[in-house]
């Protein structure tokens, strides 16, 4: 079944935009010691998501560094959602930085009465101009379904309109990595399937027989269909849950705690009906009679913690509205399951055992609840020459980074990649058979074969070595240019190391298992 037409508003580099810096400013939002997001100017200087902060500042000395604040991102994005709601009230927030609206009614109203290509383009431009007038750069795209509409918002100069029925052809050239499933991406790449068009061309019967439920959903997305079939029947009863506060709740934490309990009740009620919710409405009513309702979407079932987090964002944004803020507190909180789909379950391991991924997800959720969203991260492949640049770490539950560039990355060390990349390079000394230091000249000629290497005060005999792999980066910028040569060496203790010669000195960049 083809999904209905949707318009997606995408604010590029939203974490950076949320702190009030434009794309021309080299800026990065960091969490701990890693870059979480960066502006276009920072990317042009060599900064990448997942880099260590010190490496990012080495590439871009004028980099503006700010700590990530997810609550602030959610709160500030409410101004974007409010601007879009001026065009049509039916706005759903996918995540901070992306929101969506249905096209059919809005295109008729703003276009001229018929839902045609011209009306949809008029709507797209109108929504984009509305958000830009609020001071936020954005792209707006229209296609069949949210997945294709988000890609359409990122395409072209500010977004495009994909004609009705043209979504499969629009999606076909995109790499399978845009599905946001790294394990599936790796498997399909090994099978020679690298685009959504090639993935969509696989017979449904073969995909169903070979893959699990989540991969079947990805196959439906690649074909331009709903990721899940619609619910086979409407719910027999009102499944919304609510709670009243008497006296009114003034502290946001009290409302957020209640939201978590309500979400758990909602999940139990949906499970009893064999349903799951991929879009939930949060309705907050204040003591002064004001009501704020917002739709929140998630590709999977929103966990209780995820619902509570979105309630926090909504309350934070609401506090900034009006001259009197949120005086009087909250008297009613209601969660409404807006879009229900059949719960097709999960693919379990043999003999009814729980899968490892389920155990990891539950453990990660508990740790994130105690230590914050950035406490658990997942590695994703990225482009680069050095091993530390080829992997970025993304908080568990967040979308993966943009697809890595294919290369060719001259000077890149061939696979297999190292097992360990040292956070701080280890100083090393490499000598030849006569005890003289081994050097590498400007033409990458090695003065003598490596014979011994000293690492952390311990000397090891070199039994095998390969290299060099030279890399000269940013040669056009003398202030940030550097030249290095990498070597693979195997020592007498049966260990393998990746050594780097730079500026007349050696250090150990990574180690092999």
From TrEMBL:
The keyword Glycoprotein does not apply. It holds the Pfam family IMS. Residues 26-157 form the UmuC domain. The keyword Oxidoreductase does not apply. It comes from the Bacteria. Keywords: DNA damage. InterPro entries: DNA/RNA_pol_sf, SulA_CellDiv_inhibitor, UmuC. This is DNA polymerase Y family protein. It comes from Actinoallomurus oryzae.
């Amino acid at each position: 079944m083809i999904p209905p037409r949707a318009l997606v508003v995408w604010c590029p580099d939203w974490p950076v935009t949320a702190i009030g810096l434009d794309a021309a400013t080299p800026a990065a939002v960091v969490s701990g010691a890693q870059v979480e997001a960066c502006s276009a100017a920072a990317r042009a200087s060599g900064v990448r998501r997942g880099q260590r902060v010190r490496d990012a500042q080495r590439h871009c000395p004028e980099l503006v560094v700010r700590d990530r604040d997810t609550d602030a991102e959610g709160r500030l994005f409410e101004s974007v959602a409010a601007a879009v709601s001026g065009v049509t009230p039916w706005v759903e927030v996918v995540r901070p930085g992306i929101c969506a609206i249905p096209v059919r009614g809005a295109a008729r109203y703003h276009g001229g009465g018929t839902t045609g290509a011209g009306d949809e383009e008029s709507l797209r431009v109108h929504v984009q101009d509305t958000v830009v007038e609020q001071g936020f750069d954005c792209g707006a795209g229209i296609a069949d379904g949210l997945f294709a509409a988000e890609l359409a918002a990122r395409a072209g100069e500010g977004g495009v309109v994909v004609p009705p029925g043209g979504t499969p052809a629009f999606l076909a050239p995109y790499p399978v990595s845009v599905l946001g499933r790294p394990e599936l991406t790796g498997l399909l790449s090994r099978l020679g399937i690298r685009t959504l068009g090639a993935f969509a061309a696989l017979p449904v019967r073969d995909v169903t027989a070979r893959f699990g439920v989540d991969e079947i959903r990805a196959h439906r997305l690649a074909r331009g269909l709903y990721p899940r079939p619609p619910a086979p029947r409407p719910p027999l009863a009102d499944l919304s849950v609510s709670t009243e506060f008497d006296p009114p709740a003034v502290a946001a934490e009290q409302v957020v705690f209640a939201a978590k309990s309500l979400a758990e009740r909602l999940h139990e009620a949906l499970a009893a009906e064999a349903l799951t919710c991929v879009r939930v409405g949060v309705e907050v009513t204040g003591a002064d009679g004001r009501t704020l309702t917002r739709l929140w979407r998630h590709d999977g079932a929103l966990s209780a913690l995820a619902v509570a987090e979105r309630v926090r964002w909504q309350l934070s944004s609401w506090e900034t509205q009006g001259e009197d803020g949120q005086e009087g507190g909250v008297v009613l909180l209601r969660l409404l399951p807006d879009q229900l789909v059949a719960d097709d379950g999960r693919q379990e391991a043999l003999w009814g055992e729980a899968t490892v991924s389920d155990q990891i997800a539950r453990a990660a959720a508990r740790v994130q609840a105690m230590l914050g969203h950035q406490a658990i991260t997942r590695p994703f492949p990225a482009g680069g020459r050095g091993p530390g640049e080829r992997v970025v770490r993304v908080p568990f539950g967040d979308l993966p980074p943009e697809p890595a560039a294919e290369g060719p990355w001259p000077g890149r060390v061939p696979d297999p990649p190292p097992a360990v990349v040292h956070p701080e390079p280890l100083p090393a000394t490499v000598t030849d058979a006569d005890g003289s230091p081994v050097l590498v000249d400007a033409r990458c000629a090695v003065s003598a074969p490596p014979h011994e290497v000293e690492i952390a005060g311990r000397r090891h005999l070199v039994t095998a070595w390969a290299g060099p792999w030279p890399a000269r980066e940013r040669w056009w910028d003398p202030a940030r240019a550097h030249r290095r040569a990498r070597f693979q060496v195997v020592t007498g203790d049966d260990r393998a190391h990746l050594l780097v010669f730079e500026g007349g000195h050696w250090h150990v960049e990574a180690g092999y298992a």
